[in-house]
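Feature request disguised as a bug report, sorry. It would help if multi-protein outputs had a clear separator. Right now it looks like this:
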Amino acid sequence: MIGCHIGRCLQVTVAGGSYQDGLTSVIQGIPPGVLLTEQEIYGDLLLRKPGADELSSPRKEPDLPIIYSGLNAADTIENAGNRNHTNGTPLSILIPNLDRHFIHIKQYQDTNRTPRPGHASYASFMKYGPDDDAIGAGIFSGRYTSTIVAAGYVAKRILKQHGIEVFSYVKEIAGVRCPDVPHEQAFKYTESYKKMRHDLDPFYQEIYVKGRINMEMRFLEKTKVLAEVENEIDSIREKAPGLDPAEVRDKYGVHEIVNCPDISAGQEMVDACNRIAATGDSAGGVVEVVVTGVPAGLGEPVFYKLDGELGKMLGIGAVKGVEVGAGFAVKDMTGFENNDQMHAADGKVVFDSNNAGGITGGLSTGQAIVARLAVKPTPTIDKPQTTIDKYTLETKDLAAITRRDPTIVARIWPVAENYTALVILDHLLVHYGYQALRAN
């Protein structure tokens, strides 16, 4: 499956499936000397995992990662202080599946002859045949995006050390749109939202804050704990701190469910989505990603244009469109309206607008990079639909009985954020090398 690999200087290979033993990210190109912990990687994974709120699937995967390779297992010399630092070798992150019970497997077995409309199940059967990993949709399940989040967190961590911030949020769900918000305000809001999720996530508190898994433990010691957690999922979830919506909004200044930097718009999104979900249907929307602190000139011409690389986020399941800057709105502009005029101020270049989304000619301009992703409604819905039997080609009726998300939008923003970080870091490694070798 050659499609599960991306990158040049920073390369990522992902593997696994929704109901296999788990999923894996292997990252090559991470520089040595980065201190990493499983707790901080999980801090991003919990943002996209299912079962966290009323807008996500009831599947209860904890998504607890294990760093398997790429870190120093001990100080390289006594008291060097470089244990758990990256050492330049491939970094492997395992994400075991813990909530995969026979009752759910049986539901897929009972419905896999009839592919779900809007899902990859028909096309994947035609490609891979009867051995297609159709239990939970395999690599075509939204679960594979956990591998992107895990790898992208590492990239985001390195970018931050170089003054580059990558953040994302929900721009629209079910036709309800968040008003435009200054980037600084949206970034602070997103950071507060993440802190809220960390503080209120029972697995974050039970497994990491309480130290049931820590970076001093060996791999087999950690897997022993995960085997215990598999039988404790429900009891751990019951330990979730009990803050009601008003308390969350008062303490953290964020909406309790949707990472939308306008609380009233976030509530309207939830209400609109719930009205649709009550009919058995699902909703789509838009996610916005912003990158600040990028040096001008990042990117390549023609086939590796920076905006073209961001367009590869069409590879995220359910994403059907990617636009940069003004995007499709440019069709209704004149050249004068669309052009981002410049002027000099205090020895610096200042742009009067950012319709280009921080990228021209495939190269960064030094402005904030802005991209938006159009996310389709969840294809698994609870309404009768027409499909076919994959083996007999008879026309059949289908109504979903598997676990599903009323909307995927509220879980895709961390995937978009971390995918973008992978793209930016890959280009930054090329950029620094190019600039270092350029003749003065």
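(second protein starts here, but nothing in the output says so)
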Amino acid sequence: MTYRGKVQGGVVILEVGAKLPEGAEVQIVLHPDSEANAPTLYERLEPVIGKTKGLPPDASKYVDHYLYGHPKA
């Protein structure tokens, strides 16, 4: 038997209509798509961090200038 729910304030709130007998032993398994299992931004970007070479020292400040030719403002 499987019930779904979400954690709110450290407590599992089961879907509407879920009825468990008092004292029932349960096991919690996080859904693979759960945000709790999602990789961090660093983990997602780690493969490209530090890979660029030869950029101007002000590239981060004037990215639109270097990518699209916008004036340096």
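Even a blank line would do. Unrelated, but nice: The chain has one domain: 1-73.
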